[in-house]
Amino acid sequence: MDEIMMRKLNRQAMWFVVLHTIFIFNLAFDVIEFT
Q1: pTM score, two decimals?
Q2: H helix count then E strand count, the chain
Q3: b/e map 1-35, b = 16+ CB within 10 Å
Q4: In angstroms, rounded to a whole number, what is the distance separating the alpha carbons of residues 6 and 19?
Q5: How many angstroms separate the CA atoms of 1 and 27, rounded?
Q6: pLDDT digits over 2-19, tens only?
């Protein structure tokens, strides 16, 4: 495996996780505020 590719994939995976975490937190916050 190419090290540069692995680093690129790792960074993309990290951003994927970060964005999804923010999205889920926003969703949960909306639900809590709505109730």
Answers
A1: 0.59
A2: 1, 0
A3: eeeeeeeeeeeeeeeeeeeeeeeeeeeeeeeeeee
A4: 20
A5: 37
A6: 899 999 999 999 999 999
